[in-house]
């Protein structure tokens, strides 16, 4: 009997993305699976139930969760929802099991093969499955658009009958995928853009997008392309130099993150106090605490003349394209173990062995 695949309707507040599109449904069917989609799952991303039906999927009935062999989601289901899944089923999505004890316990109690895609090794082979990168690109794009909307000034230089308007000075903090997309977007809007990252190897990437690398003389190059945590002395020197530089900046977009940890605090209250009136900070890292000490996740407010925004669910704001990318990532990952209508996991495959939770080492 063919594997039953179920695409969940997301239950998290504000979540508009979906884990499969009609395009990837067709690919799953071609791999021999039977696909069911919960009614309304794609509406937030502009995909109707009929579009899924036209692609060959069926709408999920009341017992679909209890019978599905492979369950696809964006954000993790609640512990109660996990309890309702088929025992021993495979669950694929951004699950963060260690962030919620009840969720982790439910996954283990149901004997699920859970594949939290945020754990995927970031290797060349895994790029087509990298949901963190694809969704960060949308988040970086949206963060800059929010900044442009909040800023009481033009981004580009303009020559008008009323005189010349100088371009806004925009600083992007963090040069990961979100930060680089932010730099590219701010440049397209005509701003004068700088990129700051404690990893010196990002200079070339920042400059290739037309930004200027802000060198504060502190390096935190780490493993796997991520930054390491700074020492107290390094952080103090970084903050002193950054505080001086921020006095001349119009817009700051923060994107710095360390996987599995709260976002590093880079912009202090004292730095904000030194910024000029009308400046804007958009903190993309708000979901993990924020890079700015004054960020309030989910809020936008004014502090001594500086607007500070901590938007959440940024990728979901671009749900159509974010879902297209996410669904392709998910299909590319699932294709590692869905073959000829059956699930067959090769634990010698590093991508599977290191993504599954709890982790297991590849077989000898």
UniProtKB/TrEMBL annotation:
* Residues covered by the Alanine dehydrogenase/pyridine nucleotide transhydrogenase NAD(H)-binding domain: 148-310
Task: Write down the Pfam families for this protein, in alphabetical order.
Answer: AlaDh_PNT_C, AlaDh_PNT_N
Q: Which InterPro entries match?
A: AlaDH/PNT_N, AlaDH/PNT_NAD(H)-bd, NAD(P)-bd_dom_sf
Q: Which reaction does it catalyse?
A: NAD(+) + NADPH + H(+)(in) = NADH + NADP(+) + H(+)(out)
> Domain Alanine dehydrogenase/pyridine nucleotide transhydrogenase N-terminal spans what residues?
6-139
Q: SUPFAM superfamilies of this UniProt entry?
A: Formate/glycerate dehydrogenase catalytic domain-like, NAD(P)-binding Rossmann-fold domains
Which UniProt keyword terms apply here? NAD, NADP, Nucleotide-binding, Translocase
Known EC number: 7.1.1.1
What is known about what this protein does? Answer: The transhydrogenation between NADH and NADP is coupled to respiration and ATP hydrolysis and functions as a proton pump across the membrane.
Instruction: State the name under which the record lists this protein.
Output: proton-translocating NAD(P)(+) transhydrogenase
């Amino acid at each position: 009997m063919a594997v039953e695949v179920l695409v969940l309707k997301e239950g998290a507040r504000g979540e508009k993305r979906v884990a499969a599109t009609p395009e990837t449904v067709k690919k799953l069917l071609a791999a021999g699976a039977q696909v069911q989609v919960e009614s309304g799952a794609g509406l937030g991303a502009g995909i109707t139930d009929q579009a899924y039906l036209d692609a060959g999927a069926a709408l999920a009935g009341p017992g679909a969760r209890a019978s599905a062999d492979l369950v696809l989601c964006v954000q993790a289901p609640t512990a109660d929802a996990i309890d309702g899944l088929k025992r021993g089923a495979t669950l694929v999505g951004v699950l963060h099991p260690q962030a919620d004890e009840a969720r982790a316990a439910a996954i283990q109690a149901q004997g699920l093969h859970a594949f939290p895609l945020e754990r995927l090794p970031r290797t060349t082979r895994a790029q087509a499955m990298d949901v963190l990168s694809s969704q960060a690109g949308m988040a970086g794009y949206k963060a800059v658009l929010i900044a442009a909307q909040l800023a009481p000034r033009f981004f580009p230089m303009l020559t008008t009958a009323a005189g010349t308007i100088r371009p806004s000075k925009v600083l992007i903090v963090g040069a990961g995928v979100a930060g680089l997309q932010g730099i590219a977007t701010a440049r397209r809007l005509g701003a004068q853009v700088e990129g700051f990252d404690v990893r010196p190897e990002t200079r070339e990437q920042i400059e290739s997008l037309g930004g200027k690398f802000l060198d504060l003389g502190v390096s935190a190059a780490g493993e796997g392309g991520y930054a390491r945590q700074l020492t107290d002395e390094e952080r103090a020197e970084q903050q002193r130099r950054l505080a001086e530089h921020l006095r001349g900046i119009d817009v700051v977009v923060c994107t710095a993150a360390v996987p599995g940890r709260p976002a590093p605090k880079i912009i202090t209250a004292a730095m904000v106090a030194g910024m000029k009136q009308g400046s804007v900070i958009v903190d993309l890292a708000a979901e993990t605490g924020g890079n700015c000490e004054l960020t309030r996740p989910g809020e936008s407010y004014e502090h001594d003349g500086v607007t500070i925004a901590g938007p959440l669910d940024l990728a979901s704001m671009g749900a159509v394209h974010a879902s297209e990318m996410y669904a392709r990532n998910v299909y590319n990952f699932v294709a590692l173990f869905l073959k000829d209508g059956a699930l067959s996991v090769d634990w010698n495959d590093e991508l599977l062995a290191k993504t599954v939770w709890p982790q297991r080492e590849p077989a000898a």
